[in-house]
UniProtKB/TrEMBL annotation:
It comes from the Bacteria. Gene3D superfamilies: NADP-dependent oxidoreductase domain. This is Probable oxidoreductase. The keyword Oxidoreductase applies. The lineage of its organism: Bacteria, Pseudomonadati, Pseudomonadota, Gammaproteobacteria, Vibrionales. It holds the Pfam family Aldo_ket_red. Residues 39-297 form the NADP-dependent oxidoreductase domain. The keyword Transferase does not apply. PANTHER family: NAD(P)-LINKED OXIDOREDUCTASE SUPERFAMILY PROTEIN, NADH-SPECIFIC METHYLGLYOXAL REDUCTASE-RELATED. Coiled coil: none annotated. Keywords: Oxidoreductase.
C-alpha cells in the first residue's frame, strides 16, 4: 500500500531515504481517510489449497507466516472471494479469530467474478451481487465488518451510480468501512469519485492495480489521478509474481530458469505470461547486477527503491 502524496516507484519512499525495507509499523494513511495501514500489505492469495501446491503455503505454514507478519507490526491484509475459491478468506478469518485481534487489523477483500453455476447475477458489480458478496465474505472472514471492500474488475455493464449508492448504503449499515475499485479504467474511478462527492456520499477510498518494474502503465494517468483526488493507490504483484525476487534467472537461450510457480504452474499477472521478452530480460539482468553490486537482494531493492 502506498501513500500517494509521497509516490515514487512501487512503494513510497521515506523522507530519509535509505536501503532498508520500510518498517511495517511506519503506518500510512489510506488516501484521504483516517485509516492507518502498514506500508506493505500482506496478500493472502496463497492461503488455501484449491489452486494447487505451487500456490499454497499449507495450513500451518500459512498460520506461521500470519503470526510473523503480526509480530512485526503488520496490520493490513488483502484477499478476495475468488482467491482459492473462497478458501483464502476462510483461512484468514480462522487465523484472525484464533489470534483474537480483529479490531487491531485492517482487512480488505474483493468480489466481481461469477463463481455460481447457471446464475447470471452470481457475478458482476450490480447491487444484488455486491450485497450478497459482502455478506458471504463476512461469514468466511468470521467478522462483523470489512475495512476495505473492492470491486475486483470492471464488468462494463453496471452504472457507476448504482455502484456508488450500493457502497454508500453498505457503509451506513456498518458492513464495510471503505470501498475501492481494482483494475478499473481511470475515467470510471474519477466519475465514481466525483458523483459521490457531488451527492454527499462516501467516495472511493482506494484503487488496486498492477504495478511493478515490468508493469509501469499506471505512471502517466492513475498515479496523478490518485494524488489529485486523494485516493490511495495499492499495488498488486509489485514483484511480478516473483519474477523480480531474484530466484529466477534467464539463460543464454532467453528461457526463464529457477524453481517457482512461473516455471512450474501459472501466473495471475498477464504482463509476465511472456516472461523472456527482450525488455524483461533487460530488467532482470539489471536488477541482478545492482543486487550483486550493492549486496542487497533483488526483493529488498524493489521494496526500498
Amino acid at each position: 500500500m502506498t501513500d500517494t502524496s509521497k509516490w515514487d516507484g512501487a512503494f513510497a519512499k521515506q523522507e530519509n531515504e535509505d536501503t532498508r525495507i520500510p518498517s511495517l509499523t511506519e503506518y500510512r494513511l489510506l488516501g484521504s481517510t483516517g485509516l492507518r495501514v502498514s506500508p506493505i500489505a500482506f496478500g493472502a492469495g496463497t492461503f488455501g489449497e484449491k489452486w494447487g501446491d505451487a500456490w499454497s503455503t499449507g495450513k500451518e505454514q500459512g498460520r506461521a507466516i500470519f503470526d510473523r507478519y503480526i509480530e512485526a507490526g503488520g496490520n493490513f491484509f488483502d484477499t478476495s472471494d475468488v482467491y482459492q475459491f473462497g478458501e483464502s478468506e476462510s483461512w484468514l478469518g480462522e487465523y484472525i479469530e484464533d489470534a483474537g485481534i480483529r479490531d487491531r487489523l485492517v482487512i480488505s477483500t474483493k468480489a466481481t467474478q461469477n463463481q455460481s453455476v447457471n446464475d447470471p447475477n452470481g457475478g458482476g458489480n450490480g447491487r444484488k451481487h455486491i450485497i450478497e458478496s459482502v455478506n458471504e465474505s463476512l461469514q468466511r472472514l468470521k467478522t462483523g465488518y470489512i475495512d476495505l471492500f473492492y470491486l475486483h474488475h470492471w464488468d462494463q455493464i453496471t452504472p457507476v451510480e448504482e455502484v456508488v449508492m450500493t457502497f454508500d448504503q453498505l457503509i451506513k449499515e456498518g458492513k464495510i468501512r471503505h470501498y475501492g475499485l481494482s483494475n478499473f479504467p481511470a475515467w470510471y474511478v474519477s466519475k465514481a469519485h466525483t458523483i459521490a462527492q457531488q451527492r454527499f456520499l462516501n467516495p472511493v477510498s482506494a484503487i488496486q492495480n498492477q504495478y511493478s518494474l515490468v508493469a509501469r502503465g499506471d505512471d502517466a494517468e492513475y498515479l496523478p489521478m490518485c494524488q489529485n483526488l486523494g485516493i490511495a493507490y495499492t499495488a498488486w504483484s509489485p514483484l511480478a509474481n516473483g519474477l523480480l525476487t531474484g530466484k529466477y534467472q534467464v539463460n543464454d537461450e532467453g528461457e526463464l530458469t529457477g524453481a517457482g510457480r512461473l516455471t512450474e504452474a501459472w501466473a495471475t499477472d498477464p504482463s509476465v505470461a511472456n516472461l523472456a521478452t527482450k525488455e524483461k530480460v533487460a530488467v532482470i539482468a539489471e536488477l541482478l547486477r545492482v543486487s550483486k553490486e550493492t549486496g542487497h537482494t533483488p526483493c529488498k531493492l524493489r521494496l526500498t527503491g
